[in-house]
Design a protein that fits this description.
With 234 residues, the protein is of the alpha/beta class. The protein has 8 helices and 11 strands. Strands 1, 2, 3, 4, 5 and 6 form a 6-stranded mixed sheet that branches. The chain has a 5-stranded mixed sheet with strand order 9-8-7-10-11.
Length: 234
């Protein structure tokens, strides 16, 4: 398929395109702003894969968890493209992209942890599947303390993400045989595979862009403060 995938939920900017098996992956650190270069990277990825934006048949996007602003940037861009081009849009948890990028064989486990501040992580735990199959979530994506997430993992699991690096001491204590994947860079190739597998699992149906929604995993600080203010006033 002619597929584009983007994800800006972390400090990495995942942009990759595939046409008839030819892939161009331009994933790189985002720098100061995801929005500054995203459209240029999309154009370069499509051009490098040998197609124009009108050639796209499928669009994939990371829906989080991760940075609130980053999630919104990728999702709004992907929804706009899907609406304008009338193409199917597939949303996938960003943790799934990272898990699929570790090269762990079927049956192995991958713990994904993005730094969520406040001593917590946006994370998930997966058991990897065979080629063309989707990993199985042992712990669904969400907002966790690293101990709660690692406590469900096999001692020799692979760990990826800036949250895994930040909480390395705790992981070494709970999972003495774990392997930290460094640097925590998602694979555009793996993300494209995930998006296409999800599309196949849906029978190739046209997924309305309006049904692909962000997954924030927790309320924003602004929402928490607003609720607190309402309680105080009530």
């Amino acid at each position: 398929m002619n597929t584009l995938v983007i994800d800006t939920s972390t400090a990495m900017e995942l942009v990759a395109a595939r046409k008839e098996g030819r892939t161009l992956d331009l994933t790189a650190p985002a720098g100061h702003s995801h929005s500054a270069m995203l459209f240029d990277l999309i154009g370069s990825a499509l051009d490098g894969a040998g197609m124009t934006i009108r050639d796209l048949e499928l669009i994939g996007v990371g829906i989080g968890p991760g940075s609130f602003t980053g999630i919104r940037i990728a999702l709004s861009t992907a929804r706009m493209l899907a609406q304008v081009l009338d193409r199917p849009l597939v949303g996938a948890h960003s943790t799934l992209f990272y898990a699929a990028s570790c090269g762990v064989p079927a049956g192995g486990q991958v713990l994904v942890a993005f730094d969520a501040k406040k001593g917590r992580v946006f994370g998930a735990l997966y058991e990897m599947a065979g080629p063309g199959e989707l990993p199985r979530a042992i712990v669904e994506p969400g907002d966790y303390g690293i101990e709660a997430l690692a406590g469900r993992a096999a001692a020799n699991c692979a760990c990826i993400g800036d949250g895994a690096a930040r909480h390395g001491e705790e992981l070494s204590r709970i999972l003495p045989g774990h392997r930290l994947i460094e640097p925590p860079v998602p694979s555009g190739e793996a993300a494209l595979d995930i998006v296409e597998a999800l599309h196949r699992a849906n029978g190739g149906a046209l997924a309305g862009y309006e049904h692909v929604l962000p997954f924030y995993a927790r309320k924003s600080d602004a929402e928490v403060l607003l609720e607190l203010k309402k309680r105080e006033q009530g």
